[in-house]
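Lab notebook, bench 4. Still working through the backlog of constructs that have no structural model yet. Next entry is a single chain of 433 residues. Request: give me the structure tokens for it.
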Amino acid sequence: MKYYCLGIKGTGMSSLAQILYDLGYEVFGYDDVLDYKFTQKGLDDRGIRIYSDSKHILEKDVVVTYSVAMGEEHPELQRVRQLGLKVKKYNEVVGEITKMFNTIAVAGTHGKTTTSSLIKHIINNTIGCNYFIGAGDGNVSKNNKLFVLESDEFNKHFLTYEASYAIITNIEKEHMECYKDLDDIINTFSEFASHTQEKIIACGDDINVRKLKCDVPIIYYGFNNDNDYIIRGKETTQDGSRFDLYEGSELVGTFNIPLFGKPMILDATAAIITCINHGVEIEDIKSLLSTFKNAKRRFAEEIVGSNVIIDDYAHHPTEIKSVLDAVREKYKDRKIIVVFVPNTYSRTKDFTREFIEVLKDADKVYLTEIDCNREDSKDYPGISSHIITDKIEGADIISDETIDKLKNLENSVICFLGCAPVAHLINAYKGLF
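Model written out:
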């Protein structure tokens, strides 16, 4: 069978294409983006062809899968439909793969990628697993029974997945273009949880997670004493964080992670409990946690001149706050500069107040214009980055052409944030030196 993946450089579609290739299918794809993206590495390593025009011939036996971010009116999607090819949505194909393995589905508004990556790192280096991480990381061997899957709630995609275990990191307003309100989101997570076959591991500190309604056994974790697994004794070390984990009154162990901030400790705890439930020894978990390296574009650090630059996928106010809290914890004496690339007009509109509140705590804030490939600005009159920058003292608009606004910074941490590409801004900044 042949698969043609539209939007193949997308974080999820790239991972899917790699998995389909590993399963033995012929895979090729299309993407409008000509520039290199961090999601390409796995595609390039496998020799998967990527087209950016419609000149190539498509044979009748090709199955097409596409990301909804591409839009139904996209010329290439229209072309494959006119050719009469079989077309499946991205999440339908992922759902079919979940049925082939014992799937560990990691869901939540935030922390999915880090939690999935932690679980993958530990299990893959002990008992072995397949994995689908929404950062362009996918790998499958038919010899592995376990499948670690980052499960996205966008467009209710995760309702097509079949999981033996589910992890739910948190539940918050997000993707409000797809949901009516917070109750709709909670109800959808409840439906996802109800499909789980064995157990759910969920953050009990989150009030919305506690509202889940399902008959599947739930193991709660968190800092609060009403959880099944309780985090105590949190300390910040030179290299990350140390904490004790208790199951009830019994000490499970003391763990060190090369990550900063409470959200990262919560993500690590979810991974620890998941691995314990799959038979991984505590000492192996401790050892592997200490060697963990986060997924691409998750708090990726680099020294440029006297400054530290952070490249992070954070695009929701809560995620931005988590990054800034981690920066303050690790770099106490440095100024924090934010360069944020807003993605989607709807999110900018829905979370304007929240973006303002979290960003104004930085020492200096820059936003680019909104970078969106699935919404039309005409549908959102008056929505631009200025509705945020105009409410933050000293905030400014920045672009590749005006990156020299960062030129005279010294001894600062410059955070390049957004789910849209930021590499062009980072490269432009490095070009100043």
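Notes after review: The chain has a mean pLDDT of 94. The domain at 2-87 is CATH 3.40.50.720 (Rossmann fold). Flag for follow-up if needed.
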